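debug: dumping io for the single-chain case to check the tokenizer round-trip. Nothing else runs in this session.
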Amino acid sequence: MNCIKPSSLVLSKLNYAVIAGLLGLSTHTAVAAQAQAQEQEIEEVVAVGQRLKGSAGAVLQERQNQAFVADIMGADQISKTGDGDAASALRRVTGLTLVDGKFIYVRGLGERYSSTQLNNMYVPSPDPTRSVVPLDLFPSDIIESLSVQKSFSPDMPAHFGGGNVNIRTKSIPSDFLFNIQVGTSYNTSNSDTGYFYQGGDTDWMGRDDGTRSLAPSFVEVFNSDAGLEGDINTTLDERISLIQDLDWDVGISEKDVSPAMSFSVSLGDRFDTEVGTFGVLAAVSYDNEWEVVQEQNGASLGSLGCEDKCYAQYYSGTSTEQNVRWSGTLNLGYEFNSNHKFELTNIALHDMSDRVRNRSYYDANETEEGDTELRRVDITYEEREMFSTQLKGTHNFPEYKNVFFDWYAGLSRANRDAPGGIDIVYQTNLDDGVFESEQLQDVAATNISREYQSLHDDVETFGWNMGIPFYGDGYELELKIGGDFSEKKRDASNISFGITHRGISDDYTFGSNISDIFADENTANADFYSSATGSGIFDDGTTDGDAYVAAHQLNAYYFMADYFLADTWRITGGVRWEDFSQVSIGYQAHTQLFDSSLEEIQAVAIKEDNFYPSLALTYIMNEEMQFRLNLSETTIRPDMRDVSSSFFVDPLTEFLVRGSPTLESSNLTNADFRFEWYMPSGDNLSVALFYKDIENPIEMVELAGVGGASPQLLTANASSGKLAGIEVDFLTDFSFINADWSALFLSGNVTLSDSSVDLGIDDSDGVDSLFESQLKDALDADTVSNIVTNNERRLVGHSQWVANLQVGYDSPDGFHSSSLVYNVFGPRIIVPGTRGNEDAQEQSFHSLDLVYSYFPNFNSKVNFKVKNILGQEKEIEQEGLTLWKQETGTELSLSFSYEF
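debug: decoded output
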């Protein structure tokens, strides 16, 4: 293989130069009308209504006026459900389900089938396994509204399957604002004793103080010709120095965790001057919480150790996790007049997760119950953060036939640092069931694994749109053109190595605490090492592709027309053209050499351009009722890691995942039909039908593990897929029973759908489908017909039914508000089965929450929440066995806020 070896001094610039070379391979009408009407006298109107309907009115009006099918959730509605971040709030939206607490599935399609924007702009992702942004990163107190557009329009990204999620943050206030909120919470699962370790001095800030960082001495040896394991000239003293440069103060001990605490402060105002109006909004928030849960995991499904089917490895024990989150926003605005506005939005988000798991470990090959049993301890520390600066302008020109022009520019970066990960297996020695001693597992191939990961994502984006409205006898027409442009660069690395048990003298392997075993007085002693020079103590587990650079570039232009006829028909449509390029280049382990030749890199680079049409037809029956029909064509492109053949760990299942270098984009044909009824009282009802035809859907299939190794998943192109369903959404009060019951309301939604995917496995035709060729390449096999259990099945992640229900009460005097909120989803495939095994499915989870708010006066609010009242466990099952289970507990929280 021919490798490219750039100079280390220009490495970064050359990397992106190579990548760059490969990549080379309707609201304005209303604004104008408002400006024309400014000279007219406006009658003062005082509106009085329930708190829910008053807050929901604006988003309902926006949904009604949209040309395309969309669901919108406002800040007050989020407050009603008590959800703390965007991910949790979005599961209340019709047809949306939440996976792993971070990712939203729209209409049963996985997170890769949706796109996420922040204030209509592209943003980077700190997730190492996905390009989509984990939505738990956005705290609810910075959110003004969440918009989920379910039918494609030309002014949004063509990477569109289930929908587009647009997180719209709070903007400049209309008046002086100063708000302070403090709170605390407690989870019933925290009554169990947790396990934790020393950590760093600044963990409370959500930042590591360098305690967990990889020592410079390791960076040096990794980049040397001898490598971590050294050569024949490496001395014992050199290896002792390396061992002692690692942080070994990670021995766990029992811990009673503290209740959570949080606070937030926001300050804003608007100032009128002779040269225009200026505005500012600043806000900070902080949250520190602990959670102790019981977990179970299974791995390597087969018949080893049992007569029928069982897992060859099984874990059960306690997980203790600390989460620290903080955010900050600074928004500045300027209005020259009502026709010219500028806004600068600055957002900083930071999230730290520090988890310790102490679990019993059954291994069919090693465990001898009553004689030799196992215990596994692992520590995972992770910091995620995102910084975004966005500048946008809105300009209307009434003097030039109401031409409008909008523009935006954004610069965002996301980082993920996960230093100091450690995984240890202890062996418990028993005599007829009575404890004798504990030591590092006495198996030659076992290591104490250490891992250090980092990821940096940068996105530059800008765009514009302009248009002009026309008015005639019985019609209105708005024409709009625009452009969207973005560039994304990613630099990621993963360093993993082991301290081998076989490299330690037997007498020194005994102990129940890693801090004691690797105490300085032990590691400084030559007798600690099984070799006179310490050789064999290290095992470098870093492989080619663990470090990589990637980039994509998108240039898009679109044209749209929005036509109203006799206030009865609305026809909106247009076309979007996108030129998309993407490439991902891996490095050879611990080198500055690309692991592929230039020709191989060019072969897997994605470069495509296409037109994506969209049409929306709305029939407005009257002021309350309307019918919508949307038709469109879109695409779903592979993520940056999907085309790499190197493995990474899926954080939910802990399976190894790899991509297919020949992975292709999926093409979708979408159809939506929806009836909407908006009643004057605020009650509303909508019924929607949807259908999607998917060519080459991107799916996952399990590759059977070998010799007890972790199961492996392959990302590949199936032949075809389909999805169809119905959604019902409603809101009503109980005044139809009695006028005194108008303060009580009921809202909810239900989605019923079905999907199918044909992988394309057929040995009889003598021709390999795309899926067959990708699976054969991954397995290096001649046939794959006996690998996959179900050639036809539902789409991965698809729930056939999803339901939400909310019963609320707003007292007539305005002092009390309460909601009982229920959410449930149907079973969904997480891991497709292989070799005759059934698909692994996440089971239904019934979530029931209670939110109560008390308003002592106009300025203050007391909020009490009970989350997960039912205390149900989360579970993934396969063949009637538990692949993964987690106790969730019931959370009680109390907060107080005061607005000056």
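debug: round-trip ok. The longest helix spans residues 51-65.
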